[in-house]
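Appendix C reproduces, verbatim, an entry submitted by the partner laboratory led by Prof. M.T., so that reviewers can inspect both the input and the predicted structure.
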Amino acid sequence: MILNSITIANKEILPLIEGGKGINISTGLTSGLWANCGGAGTFSGVNPDFYDENGNYVKPIFNGKSRQERQKELIDYGIRGCLDQAKIAHEQSNGNGLVFMNILWEQGGAQELLTNVLERAKGTIKAISCGAGMPFKLAEICAKNKVFYNPIISSARALQLLWKRSYCKFKEWIGAVIYEDPWLAGGHNGLSNTDDPLTPEKPMSRLLEIRKFMNEVGLKSVPIIVAGGIWWLSEWLDYIDNKELGPIGFQFGTRPMVTQESPLAMEVKQKLLNVEKGGVKLQKFSPTGLYSSAVENKFLKELENQLTRQIPFVEIQDKGIGFDIPVELTANKKTVYINQGDKDRLNKFINDGYTSILKTPSNTLLFVNNERYNNIMTGMRDCVGCLSSCLFSAWTQREGMTIQPDPRSFCIQKSLQNISHTNDAENNLLFSGQIVYRFKEDPFYKNGTFIPTIKELFEQIKTGY
């Protein structure tokens, strides 16, 4: 298959990009090797691993007594990790590859981390890919450090807002615009309030809208990178060399997770290789409040199941409407009241072992077992401020904003650290694109018995299949 090159960040490359996957899944090693093959590699700047003077992984330890103190530690660890990963990527690409760093604008301390990393990683990071929020300050920070930026968006409207507020002032530093399909991409998805999560749209019409706007504002030569739902390039022939779409590239996020160099444990890779069609769920359990796509496993099923164990309550007894059955909350021993009609459900939950009772922001009581209760309370107590605002722990770094903690969510920091550093593929969040089931169908993987190197995968993708 013949692939014409595209130019990003003043460098001509093949239109094949490794997507950034945090926490720790896209590393300096994987991104550097991908870049060395002739594409663009992306390492994750979301809580990346860092190392001691002997090159050994250092597990972060948080000693701060307050969340603010622990977030400062997290940012410092993140800066160290980004610098380590950037150095490794630069070396693995032989100093000549195109390496991006991916951050989430809604990660805790994103601006502080980005500013510090770019000031100290001169020449190793060529562009910053950034989504999960509206990163208006991204362009200014990157331009100041003479680094390109690749906004990740899911609609022309999002790009228009970013452009009008900020990007129009720094347009010479836009390396690429990454269109992340909000229905097919793995991880957090950019579904807007006007998008129906159950009714996917074809990407072509949305891409044409994006390109039309880009042409209008002088970005005709800037590539659009399609992310989400990409497997075989032969299925995208209508997009390749399409004059209406202009220069275009393709981002692969799911497939590089199953390579020899991927840091995931073999058990996690095997889980991905054996996902059935329909085995990835688009759900809204994330403490970010965003939709996200993840493999359905024991962890996700428990989050789904606990939604069935909720009962409405009121704070003050009201016999007039039947809310006069007292229930004691586990955490603070406060008494609230449920309706008489829910008494049988209350007794059933208790008898089934769900004896710990927590209240939610939806004015419901959530019934969980003791193990889940302890995990919830520990996660809330140990919050390190990994997000700018967390619906689970009620942490926020935004002035004047208050949030009620929601026990129906989870500590995303701990779960993603676990999936990247242990072999437990069942009891942690496992992000993946919707088409992960194609590992089982693709003869390249030999029925789950073959795991390629990054170079082998890159060369296979170039064939179109």
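The chain is about 30% helix and 15% strand. Additional entries are available on request from the coordinating office.
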